[in-house]
Amino acid sequence: MRFIGAGARPDRPQIDHDRVFTVPNALTVLRFMGVPLFIWLVLAQKEYGIAVVVLAVMAGSDWIDGYVARRFDQASKLGRVIDPLADRLALIAVAITLVIAGVVHWLYLAALLVPDAVLLAMTLFFFRGHPDLPVSRVGKVRTGLLLLGTPLLVLSRLDSPFGGPLFIAAWIVLGLGLVGHWIAAYNYFWAILRKGRMQPHDDAVRHGVEENDGGAA
Structural domains in the chain? Predict the structure, then answer.
């Protein structure tokens, strides 16, 4: 069974609908609502075990909403924007929480934020909004690795004989996730740059077509 692109139906092309109230969008919102719960559990209660359960549910919902969207034709234009946004904001918020709790070094947070900050600046410069680029396979794998490595790292804080091995395994997975994060950012950088440079040409062509239509009228 495929994990990436699961639920896709080759006999039916995927269409991004204008619908807002869909099951995948609801799951995305619920996933992001798990962030404040995770923050409270880690910083206020020091309940790392329950915090891991919350992370596992968030990670599972990320896969489920994509499956439902593809399998039951519930992909939407809104979901295409908020799903990766929710993932990114959740990962950053969780990283900030773990830095405050002393679980990770601030350099880990910087490694997440720097590429995103560059891409955000480029997006605002060229598009003043969402660039409408498809999520890359590398980006999906990156997100999966980071969502897997983070709970492993939190589990390593529990008082158990497996703390050391879990810590090592967590940083192997997170390290691979960070490498994927920078590779995905590099690919998005050039994709945004190419699309941004093409935009004036596309606008000029569209403007010319409108003028010709006006003349014909």
Answer: 23-211 (1.20.120)
Residue whose tokens read 């908020």: 82
Residues 6+ apart with CB under 8 A from 210: none
DSSP labels, 69-125: HHHTT--BHHHHHHHHHHHHHHHHHHHHHHHHTTSS-HHHHHHHHHHHHHHHHHHHH
Name the pTM for this structure. 0.79
Q: How many CA atoms lie within 13 A of 164 on its CB side?
A: 1
pLDDT, tens digit (0-9, with 9 covering 90-100), for 155-172: 998 888 889 999 999 999
Is residue 119 a contact partner of residue 185, using CB atoms and an 8 Å limit?
yes
Residue 159 — φ and ψ, nearest 5°? -80, 90
